[in-house]
Amino acid sequence: MASGDLVKSNIDADVLPYGAALTGSGRISAVFPFGTLNPELLPFETPDLVALDDALIEATRATQIRFNIYVGDLGADAASGADEVFPHTPDAIRSILIAVDPNSKAIEIRSGSRVSDRANDRVAQLGITAAVGPFRDGELIDGLVSSVRVMAAAIVSP
Description:
The protein is of the alpha+beta class. The protein contains four helices and five strands. The chain has helices at about 45-65, 80-85, 120-135, 140-155, and strands at about 20, 30, 65-70, 95-100, 105-110. The strands form two sheets. Strands 3-4-5 form a three-stranded mixed beta sheet, sandwiched between helices. A two-stranded antiparallel ribbon has the order 1-2. The protein is globular. The two termini are about 25 Å apart. The model is unreliable at about 1-10 (pLDDT under 50).
């Protein structure tokens, strides 16, 4: 997850490499010696992560709503999977979750109870529409950035 580092996984904690731990939220926390990268654990390039981080920061500042992104398995029913992930995201009641399951080609958007009047179904639909084009082209990060920016532009500031 971009803002909360929440990653849902079915990994057995006993088989993790040295320096890695499975957190209570399901996220794998790993450390490496300074300057050493583990390409197996880096799903995105640094410039992509910077672009996504910039979009999240700008959206949060403009709307005063925290944006969270989850990329991973949502299960057989993506809607239920997103419903399961959402309460465990940072500041869930005042945030938006964009949940993407690349394997099943599903995208779900949830908004917390304290922001649902501003981050409503229309805003969520705009976010999904903005993401679909880049996703079809295989551009996951571009789709996420587009979704965040379009949703932030559509949300009325407090």
